[in-house]
User: Fold these one by one.
Assistant:
Number 1:
Amino acid sequence: MSVREPSAERAALLVERYGSPLYVYDAERVRAAYRDFAAAFPYAPVDFHYAIVCNKNRHLVRLLHSLGAGIHANTPGDAFAALSAGVPAHRIVYSGTNLDAADLDYILSRGIRLNLDSVDQLRDFAARSPGGAVGLRLLVDEPSRPNRIGVDPAELPEALAIARAAGVRLIGLHMYAGTNNRSLERFLACFERMVAASALLPDLEELDVGGGFGVPYRDGQEPLELPTLGREVARRMEALSTSRGRRIRLVVEPGRILVAEAGSLLVKVISVKERGGRRYIGVDTTVGNVVVESVYYPHHRVEALSPRSAPLELPTDVCGNTTHSRDFLARDCRLPPLAPGDLLALRDVGAYGYAMSSHFLNRPRPAEVVLEQGQDILTTRRETFADLLATQVDA
C-alpha cells in the first residue's frame, strides 16, 4: 500500500481546525488515478465521463473536469450538481431509468444527451424531441441473470421502428456490468454482447462501456486488470470501426476507481471496552455518516494514526455513537492499544461515503476537506442540529 494522506501529524491539525469526524480527500491521488485510468484505453476517439453519483464534491468535480473528464449523470440531481460545478451541458451524458415528464424536460431543456432505459422511455423522448438523437441502455445480461436495467436486444427492432417514425436517430448503446466489478471476464462478456447488438443500429456513433470499475477494499484482493481491459476494449473498438468504415466513439464512465482510495474519514476514539475476549472501540461518528455493510460495501481499512505498539491479537469492533444495534464501522479489526482522544482513519471512503451519508440516527453530517498542493480546503461545512430539520415546515 502506498503512503496515505493525511499523515498522523496532518490529521491531528485538520481535526483541530475542522473538528471530528472529518472527510479528507487527497487531490493528488485523484489526479494520478485519472491519468492512470485514461492511459489504459489506447483508442481514439474516447471520452471519459466521471460518475458523479459516487462523490459530487465540487472541488473534485472541477479537478476532474480540468483534466479532461466529462460527467456521467443518472439522476437530474447528478446533472444539476455537474452544471453547478461549471461543467457544460455538452460534457454531460445522462443514463437514467424511469424518467418522468419533469425529469425528461429538465434534461432535454439543458441540452444534455441521453441514454434511455426502455422502449416506453423512447416513446416519451420521441414525443418531446422528434428529429433528435438518443442512445439506449442495453440489457447485457444473459436470461438466467435477471436485470431490470436496459432494453433487451430483442426489443431493438421495435425501438428502431419507433425512432424512424419520429425521425429520431439511435446513435449509441450503453452497458452496465455492475457496481464495484473487478472481473475482466465480466466486463468483456458484456461489452461483446453490446458490440453484437450494435450491428442493428445503422446510425451508430458511440458505444458506452459504462462504469462500475471496482477497487480492492480488503488487503490481498486483486485489483481489476485495467490495462488488459483497456487494450481488449480498444481492440474490439478498432475492429468495429473498421467494419463500419468510420470511427466509432468509445465512452467510459469511471467513478469509484478515481476517488475511493483518495478519501479518508477521520474519527476520534471516545471510549474503549474489553470483555469476553473482545474489544469495543467507541468513536464519534456513526453508520449514518459512512457506507458500511448494512448499506453498500462491507469493509473499510481502519488505521490507528498514532500507534503506541503493534496491533493486539484481540478481535476489535469499531462502534458508532448511537445505540443502533448495527452501528459498527468495522468488525474484527486488529488495532494497537487505543485510548480516548486517539485518531483513527477509515480509508477508501472517497466513493459512496459522504455521498450516501444521511440523517439516519439524527447525527449531523461531517465536514469535507480537500488536500491540494500543500493546502487544506474546506469544501463542505459541518452540519448542525438545525440542518436535521431544515426542510420541515410547521402546519
Number 2:
Amino acid sequence: MAGFRAMIMVAVLGGATALAGCTATKDAAQSTTSAQAPQENLALTVSPADRASGVPISAEIGIKLGSGTVDGVDVRDAAGQKIAGELRSDASAWVPTAPLKYAQRYTATVTAVGSRTHHESKSVAFTTMKQPSQVEGVGFYLFDGQEYGVGMPIPIEFVRDVPANLRAAVQKRFFVTSDPPQPGAWHWFSPTQVQYRPAAYWQPGTKLTVRLGLKGQALGGGYYGEEDKIARVRIAKDKVEVKVTNHPKQMQVFKNGTLIKTMPVSLGKASTPSSSGHMVVMEQAYTYRFDTRGEPNGGYVVDVNYAQRLTWGGEFIHSAPWSVSDQGYTNVSHGCVNIGPGNAAYLFTVMKVGTPVTVSGTEVKLAPGNGWTVWDMDWPTFLKGSAVPVASDVANAVAYEPYPKPKPSPTVAPSTSPGTAGNAQLGTPTPSAS
C-alpha cells in the first residue's frame, strides 16, 4: 500500500468553446472565460454508502474517481478518535490498520484534488455489524519472530470450504510486505488451502510482514473470521537448497549455490515410493513418532530422530540407523528419505522450515497441495490459481522454473562425405555402442 499521495493517472478533457461571428459582447466575453475554465468535476464516490448499517468490521473505505488524485482520508469513530490506516497501492480503497469494532458508528471523509488544484470532499457515516454468533479461526503457519528458508511460502488453511464467490474478497484481506520488495501471488490449491510465494526464492535476509485481516470477514456458511493475525519474520541470510536423486541414491546440500555436502540415501521401496517434486521443509522435530496403524502398508509405531516433514502424506527426511547399509544402494523406506544419524544431525544445523528440497527420479509425481507445493509448478500455472486478477508487473516477473525445458541441440550440417550424400537426417541420434 502507498501513502496518502498515491496517484491515479487520468485524462482530463477541457478546452475553449468556439463562438460564431467576429464581435463579442461583454456577456459573450464572460461566457468565453467561463467556458475556458469550467468547474472541474472529480466524480468522487465513496463506500460504504452513507447511513449504511450492518457493515462488516473488515470493511475498507472504497474510493472511485473520474479524475484527480486522493489527497487524504479521515476516518473517525463516534467519539471523534481518528482511525489509523493506509491507501491501497492503486488508491482504490483505504484500509484500516486494525479491524473496526462491532456495532459502532464511523464517519469517513475522503478528499480528492484535481489538476487545477480544485479540491472535492465527500463524507459518509455508517454503522458496523453486530458481533456474529459463528466465528472461526484459520491455520497460519508463520510464527512471529521466526527465521525461515528461502523457499518458505505463506500457507493458510481454513476450517471449512471458502465458497468460490467469496475467495476474491477473502484474498484481498491478505497483506504481504517484503523488504526488499519482491513480486508474489496467491494460489488456491483447494477451497480450504491457499498459499503465497514470490516469483523466485526469497532473497536471503528478506524481512516479511504478513497480516491476515480476516476478523469479521465473511467466510461462507454464516461464519466470519474470528481475529486478525500478523507475523513479522525473517528469511535466513544463506540460501540453502537440498537435492535428492534416486539414480544415484544420494542427497546434495547447496549453500549459496555451492555444493557443501553429499550423502547416501534410501528412498521409498516399490510398494511405497517417495514423491518426486519440488517441496519445502514444513516442520522439524528432534523426535517424531510414526504411528501407521490402520494405514495401507503400515501397522507399525516407531520413534525417529531429526525428522523434517516434506508432505502432508507423511514423507519426511529423518535419521534411519536401521537402513544405513542400504543407503546409497537400495530403497527400503515407506516413502521417507532415510539418512544416517550423523548426516541427519548435520542437516539440522543448516536446514530450516522453508528450505527447498527437490526429489527426482522416483516412480510417482508429487500431488499439488500435498504439502507446500508452490514451487512445483511454473509461474503462469501458479498465477491461474489466484482469485484476484494479477498485476502485469507480477505476471511478467522473472520466476523460478521447476522444470526447465532442455535447450535444443545445435544444428548439424548434412554430411558430404562419399556414400552418405542425401542420407543425413538432422536431429536423428547417432546409435551408441551397446
